[in-house]
Give the backbone structure.
Amino acid sequence: MQISRTNTDELNAVIRLTIEKSDYEATVNETLKEYRKKANMPGFRKGMVPAGLIKKMYGKAVLAEEINKKLSNELTQYIHDEGLQILGEPLPSETEQQPIDFDTDETFAFVFDIGISPAIQIDFEKLGKLPYYEIAIDEEMTNNQVDAFRNRFGNYVDAEIAGEKDNLMATLKELDETGAVLAGGISVAGAQVSIQMVKSEEIKASLLGKKAGDVFNFNPAKAFENPHYTKQVLKISDEQAETLTSDFELTVEKVTTFVPAELNEELYKKSLGGDSEVTTEEQFREKIAEDLKNNLTYSSEYRFLVDAKEALTSHVAMSLPVEFLKRWLVYSNEKVTREQIDEEFDHFVKDLEWTLIKNRIAKDNQLQVAEADVVALAKETALMQFRQYGMFNVPDEYLDNYAQSILKNEEERHRLIEKRSEGLVLDFLKANAGLEIKSVTQQAFDDLFEK
């Protein structure tokens, strides 16, 4: 076995690896002996098939498997032993690699191109402070969240006459061209017509003031201008809703109006969880403001990531083996063309540069992800998913079990480790690069993403 490396330049190198007969012969022969012992072929007793026949049938496949195994192991070990920081994975040389013939060759020569990760130097003194945006919680934001909870847990109650935000519970019967009820036409009782969903201002105005017992003509297609909503009201198919033009006789059964939930302890517990100790509106608003601040921290952290990524990739002078990376991207993504890679390469480079920078920061400063941190992040992910379904008081046992099921998914586990690792790097940057804290309104914060 021979292996060597030639550096083309600081970012590219060629590895040559030669596997000789003595490196694989014994293992291949031993494997073929095992094949012979297990071979069950007509005309021969088990284990007595001639060795030559076994070799003819399986020799090439066994040889190829052994060569590929040795190639992979030796190449990986060499890269590790030499301390090479490579990008992507080794690629067969387009200019030097000769065809391999497992039928006739006894010595196998392989030539690989590798891309080498560039040296990275970060001068935090020259980097300067990084902006960190804190979103100020104002009264309007708190009021909006209070209203959202009241609307979420509110109810429809009967009303005398219809207003702009009310519903008509009605019977609808399709009419023919003469204005008579169409025999065999569409007919639905208990239909809910939301006045807010009516797009035609003329028709909407005609519905205001209606009361139980009123009967009048109504055209759903003209009123809603949305076949999907027409389908829901009339309980018909998509095809029927798309072509419907008929007028309907609408008989109001009753009018309902939406009443937001009252500000009381029942609402506080529904909104904040059954174990909430909030008993007054003032406490309710304080808790909402606190939760808003915590939730907006995620937005602040995301913006800090965006700004830190931009600042560091701009600050660190970095050269990359561009042609090698483009070849590797095409090689590792079967459905991607070179033209697509060329078009999207700048975005890829930005992400790669950030990955290299944060990995360097993590390595230089021994920022290692602890298993307990990954488990905690999985539990946090689980809790957020439960809360999306209104489940605030989830027993620890449920959280633990759900978190473990998340971590059993290797892809999800890797994502959480990367997220935690990135978080450690961002925390390091806050402490060592310095922050320029900026308090902004929600609108000003949102505007940052429009620039």
